[in-house]
Amino acid sequence: MPIVMNKVQDVLENYKSAIYEKDVEKFVSSFSSNIHIYDCWTDWECKGISQWRGIVKEWFNGLSEEGVLLKTDFADVVVEESSDLAFVHCAVTFAAHNQSGEKLRHISNRFTFGLKKEDESWVIAHFHSSLPISMETGKGIFNLR
């Protein structure tokens, strides 16, 4: 049975819990089947849920192999919404913990989500993650302000 996300905040909570649980299907349920993603990692973009599912599966498998739990936190969340479209921007931090709960590392970056209603449930139709770039090194800056 599909997960129904009645509020935009439900999508964010599903996103966080699915990552922590490493549940690929739960995670991709937050996204539209024709999702379009601009992300910071490797590829310029990702189009469609099949490609995204493969990327997520690889990501979660890597976390499992490493034996870490990934906690996700959103900060400075701003939501603008109408009856069938929403726009969210925020800072996100991913913190890797070992099985005993010790924090091993973390990264932060900026997210923008474009959401729409599909079958009365909010889903992410467009997702963009970004980082400020150091002018001296040309590398991304992963820490919050």
From TrEMBL:
InterPro entries noted in UniProt: NTF2-like_dom_sf, SnoaL-like
Domain SnoaL-like per the UniProt entry, residue ranges: 8-133
Name of the protein this chain belongs to: Ketosteroid isomerase-like protein
Organism of origin: Fictibacillus barbaricus
